[in-house]
Amino acid sequence: MSKVLIIGAGGVSGVLVHKCAALPEVFSEIMLASRTKSKCDAIAAQLDRPIQTAQVNADHVPELVELIQSFGPELVINVALPYQDLHIMDACLETGVHYLDTANYEPEDTAKFEYQWQWDYHERFKDAGIMALLGSGFDPGVTSVFCTYIQKHHLDEIHTIDIIDVNAGDHGYPFATNFNPEINIREVTSKGRYWAKGEWIETAPLSIKRSFEVPENIGTPNIYLMYHEELESLGKHIPGLQRARFWMSFGDAYLKHLEVLGNVGMTRIDEVEFNGQKIVPLQFLKALLPDPASLGPRTKGKTWIGCQVTGIKKGESKTFTIYNTSDHEACYAEVQSQAISYTTGVPCMIGSKMILEKKWTGKGVFNIEQMDPDPFMDNLNTYGLPWKIINGPVAKLD
Ligand SMILES: NC(=O)c1ccc[n+]([C@@H]2O[C@H](COP(=O)([O-])OP(=O)(O)OC[C@H]3O[C@@H](n4cnc5c(N)ncnc54)[C@H](OP(=O)(O)O)[C@@H]3O)[C@@H](O)[C@H]2O)c1
C-alpha cells in the first residue's frame, strides 16, 4: 500500500496512470501533477477510481518540494521531459523520497544526453538512504532487462548486443512523431554512435542502414544505426561486452520530411529572431505537428522491439533474440493510447511496482540492468508486454 506522485501528463503518463490505477493493492493513492492541470484532469476522468491532480512547474525545485511534502509519496515517477530530471532528483533528495524515470537528463539548450549528470547524484542518494531508478521505459528499460535476463539464464558472457526498435504502425499523416516531437527530432538528428571495445565510434546521422525482415510478418523496413542512451549504461554494467549498437526503423516519407525540415532550419534548437520575438524553430515546429496523444485512435499496425545478443555458453558461441510485439489498436482499446506510449508506460509502472514491493531495493542511483531481471520479466507477461525468446539471430547486421 503506497502513495505515488506522477509528474507529467503526456502520452506516457496516460498509460502509466491507467496501469497504476488498475492496481490499487500496490498504488494505494495516486497524485498526478503537471505544468497544465487540465491535462491531469483529462487523464483522471478516464479512470475507474479517483486520483488527485495538481499543477506544478517541475523546473522549480521549491514548488516540487512543497508538493511532495504536502502529499507524502513513497516514490516520485518522472514522466515529464528529460529537461526536468535533475530538478526532480533534487526535490527527491530534499524530501527523502525514491525517484524513477524513463529518459536520461538532457540540457534544454544542447542536444546531448548522457547518464553522467544523473550518476553524479549516486553518493547523495546513497547518503540520503533513497533509490533512484533510471530508464524504466522500453528502450531504455525493457531492452536492458532483456539483456540481463539473457546474461542470467542463457549465456556465461555477453559479447555483442544489437537493440532493434521497429514501429510498423501507420497513423495516416504525412509526418508526425510518436512521442514528444522535440525530444524525438533532437534524438533522430543527432550523430550516430555505438560502443565497441570500450570506445565510442561516431557516425554521421542515419548514415548506416540495414534491411530487416521482422519476425511474425511485421514487414521489411530499413533500420538505421543511432545513438541511444542505454548503450552507455550497458557498456558500464555488462561485463565482457565488446560491442553494443542501437537500430531504429524509419519510413522513407518520415526521413524525407526530416531532411527538408533540417535543410530549411526548422529543426534548429537555438533561438532566432522572428517579428521582434525570439523563437526556437524546433519548438515552433512542435506546435504545428500533430500531438502524439492524438495519434492513438488513427494508428494501425505493430511495433517490434527486441535485442539480438551474442556470447558464449560453456565455451560455445551462441546467439539469442528476445522481443515483444505490440499492436497499436489493441493498446488504444485498452488504455486510449498508441503502442509507443503503451510500451513505455507499462514498464514504467512495473519498475515502480518493483520498488514499492521492495523486490528492487538499493541506496543510490541505479540503471535498470543492475536489478534482478526475473520479477520484472514475469510482470511484463502479466501486464501487457509478453515477450518471446528465439535461440538464434533474426537480423543480418554486419
Ligand atoms: N524509455 C522509453 O522507452 C521512452 C519512450 C518514449 C518516451 N520516453 C520519455 O518519456 C517522457 C514523456 O514522454 P511523452 O511522450 O509522454 O511526452 P509528452 O507527451 O510531451 O508529455 C510530457 C509532459 O510533461 C509535462 N511537462 C513538461 N515540462 C514540464 C515542467 N516544467 N513541469 C511540469 N510538467 C512538465 C508536459 O506538460 P504540458 O502538457 O504542459 O506540455 C507534458 O504533460 C519523456 O522524457 C520521453 O523522453 C521514454
Unreliable spans are none
Strand percent estimate? 25-35%
CATH architecture of the domain at 142-326: 2-Layer Sandwich
Write out the distinct hetero groups bound to the structure.
NADP nicotinamide-adenine-dinucleotide phosphate
Structural class determined from secondary elements: alpha/beta
CATH homologous superfamily classification of the domain at 142-326: Dihydrodipicolinate Reductase, domain 2
By CATH reckoning, the class of the domain at 142-326 would read Alpha Beta
Span between termini: 49 Å
On the 0 to 100 scale, the average pLDDT is 95
Number of helices: 14
Q: Helix content range of the residues, please?
A: 25-40%
Largest sheet descriptor: 9 strands, mixed
What name does the CATH topology of the domain at 142-326 carry?
Dihydrodipicolinate Reductase, domain 2
The shape is: globular
Number of strands: 18
**What is the CA-based Rg, rounded?**
20 Å
Characterization of this structure:
This protein is an alpha/beta fold and 398 residues long. The protein has a domain at 142-326: Dihydrodipicolinate Reductase, domain 2 (2-Layer Sandwich). 34% of the residues lie in helices and 26% in strands. It is built from 14 helices and 18 strands. The strands form 3 sheets. Strands 7, 8, 9, 10, 11, 12, 15, 16 and 18 form a 9-stranded mixed beta sheet that branches. The protein has a 7-stranded parallel beta sheet with strand order 3-2-1-4-5-6-17, with helices on both faces. Helix 1 (11-21) packs across helix 13 and helix 7 (142-153) packs across helix 14. The site of NADP nicotinamide-adenine-dinucleotide phosphate has 31 residues, from helix 1.
